[in-house]
Amino acid sequence: MRKWLNLLAVLLLALMVAAPASALGKRKKGGQLEAMQLAYATAIRWGEFEEAWQLVDPAYREAHPMTELAFERYKHIEISGYTDKNSSVSEDGNVLRNVELRVINKHNMAERSLRYREEWRWDPVAKRWWLVVGLPDLWNGE
């Protein structure tokens, strides 16, 4: 009987050690997402769009290359607000984040707000998060 109790104690100890390791992995991944989202929001907020572009998924960047002219357009605006409205997880595990941007046209100082939806994908090979939707379209396709 004592042998079984010792075995049970060892199994319980193993489970107690394994459970926090799994939770730690999820927390670490979540912490990395928060860090990437903060870096992206900061770059956008301070007009560092070329820096923000480096956080976009390489596959997206290759399929939708940015030109110097496209980056030049961003120099004509200023982001006066970047507010995270809500987040959710899609069926494929990507994180969706709805953001409200406050945009000022530097030429006429007119401010407007618009909604932008970020989508973040975990890359298990690179062990990092990537934005898979590109930079926000601040001109509504114009």
TrEMBL record:
Segment forming the signal sequence: 1-23
Keyword set, alphabetical order: Signal
Superkingdom, natural source: Bacteria
The keyword Signal is assigned to this record: yes
Protein name from the UniProt record: NTF2 fold immunity protein
Organism: Pseudoxanthomonas sacheonensis
